[in-house]
C-alpha cells in the first residue's frame, strides 16, 4: 500500500484500507463492510460517527480550534466539570494532554515530585506506552531492549501477587502503577482482592497508587471505571483512547494536594485541553453516561463471552476466555495470524495480543446481531483452521 513508502516499518499492517465508519462498522475503499472489533485499539469507544461527537466538533470548529491553557476557555471548562463530576472519589483535579503515554508521563512526574521519592513499581505484563518514561514502566523486553538505558529505579512485581509487590517496594518507592485489567498482555483481569490489598499496602507505606485505565476505563468493562469492579480508587488515574470519541486526548486525574506540589512551568502541554478535543470529550462522556453505552457494554459483553464459551466447547484450539464487559481476550493454543486473516475475509476486524491471543475491543454501541455474526465467523474460521491441522498432521 502507498502509505508504507512514507511511514516505514513501524506498524503491523493489515491489508484493509478503511474509507468510512458508522457505529460498530467500517467500510474499505472497495465498499466491503466489516464489523469492527478492533475499535481503533479501543479509541472508537462511542462508535464511529457518533452523532453527539460529530455535532460537537462541527460546532466548535466554527468557534475556535486552539486556546492554550495560559488563557481561559468555556469549552474546556465544561469538559473539566463533566469529567471531574464522573471521576472516582477524591480525584478533583486534572492535567489535560494528548495521549495515553503523555497521561502516564504526567503521572510519573506528579508522583515523584509530591512524594520526593524516586522508586517506581509496575507489574509484570504491564503496558503503559512507548515514550521513554512510559516505556520504562512497560514490562515486555522486546519494546525496551534497543532503547536502554531508560528511566532508572523501576521494579516489577507479579500481577495479582501482593507478596511479590511487598518484596519490591522500599523506603524510596514513590508509586505503584497498574492496569486493573492488563490489555496488551492478553486481557488479564486482576484477581479478586488484589486491588484492595494494593490500596491497603500503599496507604501503609505512604506510596501513591496509580491506575492506568487508558484501555480499561470509560465504560469499556461494563462500569464507568474498571476499578469500580473492586471498589477501589487510586490517587492518580490515567485516561486516553476513547475519552474524546476518536479525537486525540489524554487526561491525568489527581488528588488536589498532589497537583498542588507542581510549580508553574514544571509540566505543561501545548495542545492539551484544546477546545476541539474538549468539545468532543464532553460529547463522548455524555454519550457514555446518557445513551446507555456503559449498560450496553455490560450486557453485550456477557452475551459475547457466553457465546465464546460455547465455541470453546466445540473448538479445542481455544484455551481460555477472559475479560469484563467489551474488553475480551481469547487465548488460543496456536498462533492467531491465520485466524485474523480468515476473519477479515468474512468481514470481521479483530486485534491480537502476542502470538496466540485474540483481543476484542469493539465500540460500545455494538449490537447482539453483530455479535452473533462475529461468533458465526469465528466458528467458521476455527473449523477451517482445525481441518487444515488435521490434513497437515
Automatic annotation (TrEMBL):
Family statement: Belongs to the class-III pyridoxal-phosphate-dependent aminotransferase family. LysJ subfamily.
Pfam (any one): Aminotran_3
Catalytic activity: [amino-group carrier protein]-C-terminal-gamma-(L-ornithyl)-L-glutamate + 2-oxoglutarate = [amino-group carrier protein]-C-terminal-gamma-(L-glutamyl-5-semialdehyde)-L-glutamate + L-glutamate; [amino-group carrier protein]-C-terminal-gamma-(L-lysyl)-L-glutamate + 2-oxoglutarate = [amino-group carrier protein]-C-terminal-N-(1-carboxy-5-oxopentan-1-yl)-L-glutamine + L-glutamate
Subunit structure: Homodimer.
Binding-site positions, substrate: 269
Main location: cytoplasm
Modified residues (N6-(pyridoxal phosphate)lysine): 241
Annotated pyridoxal 5'-phosphate binding sites: 100-101, 212-215, 270
One function term, GO molecular function aspect: pyridoxal phosphate binding
PANTHER family to which the protein is assigned, alphabetical: ACETYLORNITHINE AMINOTRANSFERASE, MITOCHONDRIAL, AMINOTRANSFERASE CLASS III
Co-factor remark: Binds 1 pyridoxal phosphate per subunit.
Protein name in the entry: Putative [LysW]-aminoadipate semialdehyde/glutamate semialdehyde transaminase
Cofactor(s), names only, from the UniProt record: pyridoxal 5'-phosphate
Biological function: Involved in both the arginine and lysine biosynthetic pathways.
GN (gene name): argD
Amino acid at each position: 500500500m502507498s502509505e508504507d513508502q512514507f511511514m516505514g516499518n513501524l506498524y503491523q499492517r493489515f491489508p484493509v484500507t478503511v474509507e468510512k465508519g458508522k457505529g460498530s462498522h467500517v467500510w474499505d475503499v472497495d465498499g466491503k463492510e466489516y464489523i469492527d472489533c478492533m475499535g481503533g485499539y479501543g479509541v472508537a469507544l462511542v462508535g464511529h460517527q457518533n452523532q453527539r461527537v460529530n455535532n460537537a466538533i462541527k460546532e466548535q470548529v466554527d468557534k475556535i480550534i486552539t486556546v492554550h491553557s495560559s488563557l481561559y476557555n468555556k469549552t474546556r471548562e465544561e469538559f473539566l466539570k463533566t469529567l471531574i463530576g464522573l471521576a472516582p472519589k477524591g480525584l478533583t483535579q486534572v492535567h489535560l494532554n494528548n495521549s495515553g503515554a503523555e497521561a502516564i508521563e504526567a503521572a510519573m512526574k506528579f508522583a515523584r515530585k509530591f512524594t520526593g521519592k524516586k522508586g517506581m513499581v509496575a507489574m509484570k505484563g504491564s503496558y503503559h506506552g512507548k515514550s521513554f518514561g512510559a516505556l520504562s514502566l512497560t514490562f515486555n523486553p522486546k519494546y525496551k531492549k534497543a532503547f536502554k538505558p531508560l528511566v532508572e529505579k523501576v521494579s516489577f512485581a507479579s500481577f495479582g501477587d501482593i507478596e511479590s509487590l511487598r518484596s519490591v517496594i522500599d523506603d524510596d518507592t514513590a508509586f505503584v502503577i497498574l492496569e486493573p485489567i492488563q490489555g496488551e498482555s492478553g486481557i488479564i483481569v486482576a484477581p479478586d482482592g488484589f486491588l484492595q490489598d494494593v490500596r491497603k499496602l500503599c496507604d501503609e507505606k505512604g506510596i501513591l497508587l496509580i491506575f492506568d485505565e487508558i484501555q480499561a476505563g470509560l465504560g469499556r468493562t461494563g462500569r464507568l471505571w474498571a476499578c469500580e469492579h473492586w471498589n477501589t480508587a487510586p490517587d492518580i488515574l490515567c485516561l486516553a483512547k476513547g475519552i474524546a470519541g476518536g479525537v486525540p486526548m489524554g487526561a491525568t486525574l489527581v488528588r488536589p494536594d498532589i497537583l498542588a506540589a507542581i510549580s508553574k512551568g514544571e509540566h505543561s502541554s501545548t495542545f492539551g485541553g484544546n477546545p476541539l478535543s474538549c468539545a468532543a470529550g464532553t460529547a463522548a462522556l455524555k454519550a457514555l453516561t446518557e445513551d446507555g453505552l456503559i449498560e450496553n457494554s455490560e450486557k453485550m459483553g456477557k452475551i459475547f463471552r457466553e457465546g465464546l464459551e460455547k465455541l470453546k466447547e466445540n473448538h479445542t484450539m481455544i484455551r481460555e476466555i477472559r475479560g469484563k464487559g467489551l474488553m475480551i481476550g481469547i487465548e488460543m493454543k496456536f498462533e492467531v495470524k491465520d485466524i485474523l486473516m480468515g476473519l477479515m475475509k468474512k468481514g470481521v476486524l479483530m486485534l491480537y495480543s502476542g502470538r496466540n491471543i485474540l483481543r476484542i475491543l469493539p465500540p460500545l454501541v455494538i449490537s447482539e446481531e453483530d455479535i452473533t455474526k462475529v461468533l458465526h465467523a469465528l466458528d467458521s474460521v476455527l473449523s477451517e483452521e482445525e481441518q487444515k491441522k488435521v490434513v497437515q498432521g
